[in-house]
Amino acid sequence: MTSELLLRILLDFVLAFVVGFCWGILFGSPKRILWMAGLLGALGHSLRFVLLESGVVLITATMISAVTIGILGIYCAHKVHHPPVVFTMPAFITMIPGLYAYRTMLGCIKLTDPAIVQKTPDIMVQIGHNLMLTLSLLAILAIGISIAALLFRTKSVKEINFGKKQKVKKAE
Amino acid sequence: MTENIPSSTNEYVHATEFADLALDIATTMLASGAHCGRITRNLDRLAKRWELNVQMQLTFIGVAMTVTSEHDPYHTVTRYRSTPPHSVHLELLTEFSSLTWKAADGDLNFEQVKNETERIKKIKHYSYWSVALAVGFSCACLCVLAGGGLIDAIVACMGAFVGSIVRVFIMHHKFNPMISFVIASFVTTMVSGANMVFHWGPAPEAALATAVLYLVPGVPLINSLIDLIEGHLSSAWNRALFGASILLCIAVGMTLSISLLGLNNF
To answer: Which residues contact B24 (CB under 8 A, 6 or more apart)?
Structure first.
């Protein structure tokens, strides 16, 4: 039972790694940090998977993992000397609510057919539910990406250092 | 002209020259998927180096900018430039960020910054074959994550790969970008819908839903919300509208192909 769950988490991690890595290629992230995009995406997605398995609601689970990835991204930005958006953007795309956006669109298409509307009277409720899920998840991902601007008063990520002494850093 | 050039920067840059360079950088960054806060920060950094002050109005389609000298209020210029066609390219954001930091530290003079900008603008995206392969793999993985089997994943991979190649082909012939989204989503759904018609895999709906995900405008939609958080309202609405119209185009393409295939029970 436990080993099966671990295996599923591992599978989720690997799949999300590939998604983050490949989305980095689609968005033209530099070659050197594609692995970082994959790693952060995999961490975020598997964290969300674990939270969902332990009974946390989808929106809360996404919120927790998005904020975690956002803060990890600021830390990693110092290590690899790249602005965080370059690798957190592909990483966040692994959690983009594509399926819910798709269901919203499909629901709107179904709404044009009177026969389907008669057969499923709660179609408007379904559309509204999927639309609200899509919008809230998108907003949460945006919060995760701009966490630096929301939590810290400095304007640039380069000036954020987690409680360390100020030291002059220069890009090579 | 200004006489009191400070000793810290013994280089004098005219506001017009600077505005041309800054508009170049701003429009290129906007087209490669930067949010407005990032552009403002980068250009503020650059302007401080030569004791200039920059005020900008950023929208999705263009940048209006006023550059004023910090010492002489009459030494000012206002320019507008519209953006090149949008295509997400995050590497340029890294390059511009490190360029503006280097310039702000005083390591580069104005001429060098200009040359660097020209070099950065010429950086190539990944070849469309590797992008198509990457898109195929990631859609296959998303399909498995959404509960599809191995065959569904292969079908989703094929659909996304073919659709991506078709989109590059259409864009290459300078058609309207919206049309390219309609046709790409049509082709992708035709391929992944075959799975549904012939019942190859255990979960054909998963393949149908995830194969088109490579077209979803994630960067404009997320940037729109970041702009909203940071208070760039006009740009936020522009981006949201752009993203929504792409989503609409994907829906149109999918509807066309679903009704052609005769899938009534989708």
So the answer is: B81, B117, B121
List chain A residues with CB under 8 Å of B89.
27-28
B154 closest CA partner among B85, B229, B210, B222:
B210
Round to whole Å and give the CA distance between A18 and B167.
22
Interface contact flag, A83 B126, Cβ < 8 Å: no
| A138 with B266: Cβ contact below 8 A | no
Nearest Cβ partner of B94 from A16, A45, A83?
Answer: A83
Phi, psi of B232 (to 5 degrees): -90, 80
Domain borders along chain A are 2-95+143-159
Residue B198's contacts (CB-CB under 8 Å, 6 or more residues apart) are none
pLDDT of A126? 92
Contact assignment for A141 to B146 by CB distance below 8 Å: no
CA–CA separation, A126 and A146 (whole Å): 30
User: pLDDT category, B108, cuts 50, 70, 90?
Assistant: confident
Contact B93 A85 (CB under 8 A): yes
**Res B30: pLDDT:** 93
- Distance in Å, alpha carbon of A159 to nearest chain B alpha carbon: 12
Higher pLDDT, A160 or B42: B42
* Cα separation, B257 vs B182, whole angstroms: 10
Indicate the residue of A98, A138, A155 with minimum beta-carbon distance to B213.
A98
Q: What is the DSSP string of B51-103?
A: TEEEEEEE-SSEEEEEEEESS-TTSEEEEEEEPPPP---HHHHHHHHHHHHHH
Residues of B in contact with A151 (CB under 8 A): none
pLDDT tens by residue, A100-137? 887 888 888 888 888 888 888 899 999 999 999 988 99
Residue-wise over A37-67: b if at least 16 C-beta within 10 A, else e? bbbbbbbbbbbbbbbeeeeeeeeebbbbbbb
Task: For chain A, positions 50-89, list CB contacts with chain B under 8 A.
Answer: 81-83, 85-86, 89
CB contact under 8 A, A149 and B37: yes
Kindly state the percentage of chain A with pLDDT values over 90: 38
